[in-house]
Structures are given as structure tokens and as C-alpha cells.
Amino acid sequence: MSQHIARKRFGQNFLQDQKVIFDIVRAVQPTQNDTVIEIGPGLGALTTPLVAQINQLHVIEIDRNIITRLKQSEYAHKLIIHEGDVLKFDFKSIVGPKKLVGNLPYNISTPLLFHLAQLADEVVDMHFMLQKEVVERMVALPNSGDYGRLSVMLQYFFEMEYLFTVPPEAFDPPPKVKSAVVRMIPQQGRIGLASDFEFFQKIVAQAFSQRRKTIRNTLKGWADEAVLLLCQIDPTSRPENISPQQYVALSNLLCVQKSV
Ligand code: SAM
């Protein structure tokens, strides 16, 4: 097969470090009959060891040249190829509990994570490689500089675990930044349910719209001091001091207030 030239617009940085590849597949722990979906198989760095362990692998890929290569690969008979943009992919079209894995295209990481966040009911777990800085924000706890809207919205749905750091040399071509692998497992009710998810999203977005201001100021017109105090939120605290549980409690209380 002719050599593939990496396409920057598709965030193509191909994994070449066998130890990193081995560590990712070991973290995923696929078993033969699992429904596994790989996002962006590329030249098959993860695809090859995955298909060695399972009967069938779903792959979602946007690059037509790569699709052609996948169809010609020696493991093509084990692949179910979904050609197109993962941001538009309907994961519910694949029935049953799924394991998602991918060395994700970094140029679409934030919209992709928000898209994937909605899949908590559909998945067993997710293992992704992303920019280290993004993974740090995903797993960040309250009272840290990395904690923000992404942390709250993902931690609402998932338990997050930072697994390991990957240096640029592990890829060809090497990206400009360090990378990291993260594990996401659907929450088992630790955080509680937002009674109106859209409203919860809005409150969190509003709270983090001005990080430096106190929560009393950023949520002016949304929540008064009494409501904040009822949720055990200090009105003089900043958005990064408030836990996902407190955002859920606040959103739920405001929903009750709206409805009376
Ligand atoms: N899994 C391979 C590896 O580890 O070497 C490739 C990883 S590369 C960082 C990202 C892959 O995602 C590429 O194959 C790229 O073509 C694909 N991709 C980029 N944008 C995509 C999108 N919107 N939908 C589906 N696949 C996409």
C-alpha cells in the first residue's frame, strides 16, 4: 500500500510507540464479545491489537483514504466501518453496552467530549488519548486552576481517571504538546441527577463565564444569596470552588423555584 501522508486538518498524529499502544489496549481490557467502538482508527495502531482480542470492532473514520486502506487491511473482515464525522455519529444506532476507545483528533477534542458526554447511559467505559492539558481539565477537582465547565459537565456523567502521560515522540508526526490517556466510567449516582439537564448546563456555563468574579455576581439574576446559602455555597466563592454536586443542587433548587 502507498504511504499515507498525515493530514493536519483531521488531527492525524499516528501512534508508533509499541509500549504506549500496549498500555492503552491493556487499560481497555477488551474481551472477545465486547462491543468496542474505535474513534479514528487511522493507520491501525490501536485497531490491530484490538482486533486480535475481539471478534468484531466498530470503527468511525472521516478520512476516505484511510477508509480505503481499512477495507484492504488483512483484518477488514473483523471491522464494521462507519465512514463519516464522529461529531454526527449516532452511537445509539449500535445496540447494547459499548466500550469506546480512541486516540482522538485533538482539533475537535472539546466539541467531541461534549458530544460523548451524552452517552453515559450507552457505554461501559471510554478510554481516550487527548492533549495532556485537556485531560487535566477533565479530571480536575474543585479549588484547582484546571477545574472548569468541562470538568463539571464530564464529572456529572463520568468517574474520571488520569491513567498516564504520553510524550510527543510516541507519535508520527509528533504533536506540539504532551498527551495523556484518560478512563471515563459512567457515574453510579454519586453526584445526583439534575431535574432539568438543559438548565443545569446553562447554570454551569453562566457560572464559569467570568471565572474571576464571585459566584454571587456571576449568577446575579439567576440565584440570590439565600438560595446559594441553602446549597451550602458561599456567595463570595468563585465558580471553581463549587463542586459538581453543589451545581446540581443549585440547579434543582432553582428549577423548583421557577415552577412555583
Ligand atoms: N488511532 C490512530 C493512531 O492512534 O495512530 C489515529 C489517531 S489520529 C490522532 C486521529 C484519527 O481520527 C485519524 O485517523 C483521523 O482521520 C480521524 N478523524 C479526525 N477527525 C475525525 C472526525 N471528525 N470523525 C471521525 N474521525 C476523525
List keywords for this structure.
single chain; 260 residues; alpha/beta; Rossmann fold; Helicase, Ruva Protein, domain 3; 2 domains; 7-stranded mixed β-sheet; two-stranded antiparallel ribbon; 9 strands; 35% helix; elongated; binds S-adenosylmethionine
Explained architecture:
With 260 residues, this protein is an alpha/beta fold. The chain folds into 2 domains: 8-186, Vaccinia Virus protein VP39 (Rossmann fold); 197-259, rRNA adenine dimethylase, C-terminal domain (Helicase, Ruva Protein, domain 3, Orthogonal Bundle). It is built from 10 helices and 9 strands. The longest helix has 16 residues, at 244-259. The protein is elongated, with a radius of gyration of 20 Å. 37% of the residues are buried. The structure holds S-adenosylmethionine. S-adenosylmethionine binds next to β1 and β3.
Q: How many separate domains?
A: 2
| CATH level-1 class of the largest domain | Alpha Beta
DSSP E strands, number: 9
Largest sheet, order of strands side by side?
A: 4-3-2-5-6-9-7
CATH 2nd-level architecture of the largest domain: 3-Layer(aba) Sandwich
Characterize this entry briefly.
By secondary structure, this protein is α/β, with parallel strands linked by helices.
Q: Topology, pairings included?
A:
Blueprint: E1 14-15, H1 18-28, E2 35-39, H2 47-53, E3 57-61, H3 64-72, E4 79-83, E5 98-103, H4 109-117, E6 123-131, H5 132-139, H6 149-157, E7 158-166, E8 171-172, E9 179-186, H7 197-207, H8 215-218, H9 225-230, H10 244-259
Parallel strand pairs: 2-3, 2-5, 3-4, 5-6
Antiparallel strand pairs: 1-8, 6-9, 7-9
Helix pairs in contact: 4-6, 7-10
The structure holds S-adenosylmethionine.
